[in-house]
Amino acid sequence: MKFAIAKFGGTSMADAAVARISASVLKNRPEIRVCVISATAGTTNQLMQMARDAAGENPGAIPNALGHFRERHLSFMRDLKGSAENVKKVEDLCARVKEILQGMQLLREVSLSALDDLVSHGELISSLLFVEALRAQGINTKWIDARQIMKTSSDHGRALPHLDLLKELAQKEIFPHLAGNVVVTQGYIGSDLHGRTTTLGKEGSDYSTALFAEALEASEIQIWKDVPGIMTTDPRVVANARTLPEISFAEASELTRFGAKVIHPDTFLPAIRAQIPVYVGYSQDPEVKGTRVVNSPADKPAVRAVSLKRQQTWLTIKEADGLNAPLFLINVLQVLNQYKITPTLLSTSENRVGCVIDRIYDVSSDLVRELGTCGEVHTAQGELLAIIGLDIRTRADLQARVLSHMDGVSPYLISSGASENSFCLMLPSGQSENLLRTLHQDLLETK
Prior knowledge:
The chain is α/β, with parallel strands linked by helices. The chain folds into two domains: 4-226, Acetylglutamate kinase-like (Carbamate kinase); 305-445, 2-Layer Sandwich (VC0802-like). It contains 13 helices and 17 strands. It has helices at residues 16-24, 43-57, 62-79, 84-107, 112-135, 163-173, 205-216, 249-257, 268-274, 325-338, 365-371, 396-403, 433-445, and strands spanning 4-8, 32-37, 141-143, 151-152, 182-186, 189-192, 197-199, 220-225, 246-248, 278-282, 291-294, 305-319, 345-348, 352-357, 375-388, 413-416, 422-428. β16 and β17 form a beta hairpin. It is globular and about 70 Å long. The two termini are 44 Å apart. The relative contact order is 0.10.
């Protein structure tokens, strides 16, 4: 059976009007048999803030925030003319949110397990709302709780899927419903083998979608966003940015790793394993042609895109006098591992290590102090600019062309060779935007 699995993100579920437009995508795409839904726009952040407030940051803010959360989603359901059954389910889920927050307030702490349980309610409620949006289009639906299918490790906040068990459960609990219904489930959330709610990491709904597609042997993954596909760069910075009709998995993976936020980087792992093409479409106007991510695009330009990743930390450690060089590198890597930090880029010499650290990691004083036992530590804030294309590592002429535009720019790091498909510059904060515009004009607009 050939079918597609589609994901609708938070901005595609911003309110009832937007949800109706998102649901209308399925009217002209009967191949979609599974929909994976994110929490409504801003909801996950709101739940996390309520957790912080409950634990002591501002407990007095909880009643108003909880009332707003409840009324927003019930109003959303009323606007969709939701069934009494699903209105009751949303009310019950909101009541459960209140219970979890009360527990956090009583204990004055937020465990990762409790936080996973709390934030899962965003996806659970949103998926019920999407069921009603689909039913208004005359589409038969089957709602399934992803936690019963997406079995994971117990690593709360960043759980790992049990792929064999996921495949077994998906084939048993989801596949039989595909012939007569569109199955609606949730992204981002799962449960461990003890039944405790887990999450797959921030913005993990794209990843969930690809995992479900792999488990169900889908023929296509569709990611529906509030932007018209994957673009040559950030259109907020470069007005002439354009949508890419096709891009390779390798290039798309690099692009998302180095700043593009259209798709979560982990999405491509299951898609590549199962050889499932990915389509990125514009949920607010499905007629607009999006981007297909495939193994081998027909068009193979030297440069596919340029990207910018802000709020990065440039961390350098210079070997302490007398420390054996091989042990120096090992010790630095052990400290980074201890703090669960994976550098985006790593540069090493005999007595110096430089790392680009993404903003998702906390470069704390404790980390700096620990690294100080290895050598002299310096940190600086910066931005990572990447040029993406096929086999860029072999293109010395292209790299020279990039560097010719760097008058007045003082990079912390120039990285070539770490990947076949990217050439990277780690720059001080404030030096990237003008260079990005210049490179886009030269490499992607000039014929």
